[in-house]
Structure formats: structure tokens, C-alpha cells
Amino acid sequence: MSPAPPALFCLGLCVIQVIQAQHGRLPKPSLQALPSSLTPLKKPVTLKCQGPPGVDLYRLEKLGSGEYEDQDFLFIPIMKQNHAGRYRCSYQNGSRWSPPSEQLELIATGAFTKPSLSAHPSSAVPPGGDVTLQCQSRYGFDQFALYKEGDAGPYQKPERWYGADFPFVTVTAAHSGTYRCYSFSSTSPYLWSAPSDPVVLMVTGTSETPSQILSEVSLSLTKVTRRHFRPLNSFTHKVSTTETSKNVTVSREVSSPPFGFAHQHYTKGNLVRICLGAVILIFLAGLLAEDWHSRKKPLPHRIRAVQRPLPPLPPTR
Asked: Which Pfam families match (predicted)?
């Protein structure tokens, strides 16, 4: 029996690969909330499910409720408390269903009074310094979330009563931005308070070493020297002759200050800049000593406050 031609063998292999691909798992879709998954009460929001081209049927469902829509989007014109929760979607091609998308948490904000957010010791922090953003509420919430404008998700959700600390150690320029926090209860994880007033965190200055500062002072001294000190032959000479006596009269006009004055100005400028560099070095040494001393101090013991009752939910229209 003669072997099969190469072209027929390649055709059979391609058919096998197509059959295997048809019986393989479909890629899961993605689900997103527009404009955001944090939606204030009474505001609109749209849930959008996205799958590959040629999908036969989409299904978007709310978990735990048994409710679903056979379409790729869900438009909510007025956000209410009962809309908050977890959602997912999937699609169907032929007789096969795709894996479900990642779960989306749709959160209703504005259900409670906003907490307060503050920065300690200050909202202006030098590079490499430490800062703590403190979120506090007058109600007995045990969950807090901190958001930065431009980031997708919260930093953390610590479990403490009435307030939470969000420490940032060794800050960099990437920590600069506008922050807000929310408070809520673990018993109603999808009903959050209104956002706090914003706190703008600024990382001031640049992280320069003392050697870099000295080099910049030296460079400025060189520029000052070149600008204020001129050579001695920078005089202009005027020569006038008279026809009767054939005598030559030489007059000198000075276009720059005398050498003694320039040298004195240059010396004073040097002293001022050297003193400025010394003050900067002493200031940096003081910052390093203060940081080292503060790290050795033990953290104060936190006393857990007595739990207060949660505020009532707003009425559902």
C-alpha cells in the first residue's frame, strides 16, 4: 500500500485541528460598568458584556437573585439600592456556553453620610517620607475603602470601627494625586457612604543626595564667576592727535568696574553660596536624624472604641 501524498496528509491534519478547536473551550467575555462601578444613588449606569465576534446569544445575570437579561448590556436609568450587587455575563455559540466573565461588583454610593479624610502629618510630603491618610466616620462602620483618582480599585479595606489608617511608607512621585474614602458595613457590602471631601497628596521637591546639591552649588558659582569677573584688558582706548604739536594724547575709559570691586563682589558671592550649601547640608542631616529617631519610637497602642449603631438606610422609592 503506497503512502498518502503530503498534500492529503496536511489537509487531514488541518481538519483535525479545526474539529479540536470547535470542541475546545470558548474564551470568557468581559463585563464592565460605565461610567463606573461606583454609582451614586439616582444616577444612571450601564453594564456592558463584550465577547468575540459572531456571538449567537448573550446572557447577563445578577447573582443571588435569579434575574437575568438575554442581551449584552443592562441600562439602569436610576440607580437604586436593589440594583447594587454582583453581576456576571456569558454567551452562547451554537449549543455551547462560554465560561462566565469575572464578577462585577456594582456599588451604590451615597447611602450614608460622607466620612472625613485627612493626611498626617501633612499632605505635602518630601520624597522618601511617610504619610498616613486617615478616614473617619461618626457611625459604627467596620469597612473603609480608599480610592485615588485614575486608579481602578481601592487600596485596601481594613476592618476597624469608626475609622481606618492608610499608611504610605517611603513615598515617591507616583503617590501624588487626589484621594477620597468611603465607609460601609460588612453586613451591606454594596451600599456605601458618599465619598469624603478630596485630599490632594503632594510629593514636594526631588530626592537629591548631598553630593548632587554640592555639585549644583559649584556649577552656580562657576556661572557667577564668569558673569561678574572680566579680564584686565577690557578697557577701551581712544587716541587723539593734533596737527600743530604732533603730540599724541591717550585717554582710557573704563567699561567695567575696577578689579578690586569685582574681586570683592565675587568673594561675597562665594561666601553667601558656601553658607547656603552648609545650611542645606545641616537641614538634610536634621531630617535624617529625625526620621531615624521616629522609627525607633514604639507605635501607640490603639484602644478599640465602643461600637455605635449603624445609621438607618435611606427610604426606597
From this structure: ig (PF00047), Ig_2 (PF13895)
- For CA atoms 272, 276, 277, 281, the dihedral sign is positive
Q: Among residues 58, 84, 109, which one ends one of the domains?
A: 109
Helix or strand or coil: residue 155? coil
Is 199 part of a structural domain of the chain?
A: yes
* Same-domain check for residues 142 and 102: no
Convert the pLDDT of each residue in 13-46 to its tens digit.
443 333 434 556 899 999 999 999 999 999 999 9
Count of CA atoms in the C-beta half-sphere (13 A) of 105:
11
On the 0-12 / 13-18 / 19+ scale of CB atoms within 10 A, 123 is: middle
pTM equals 0.59
Range of the domain at 50: 24-109
pLDDT tens across 58-107, in order?
Answer: 999 999 999 999 999 999 999 999 999 999 999 999 999 999 999 999 99
| Maximum separation of any 2 CA atoms in the chain, in Å | 132
**Residue 147: its H or E element:** strand 143-148
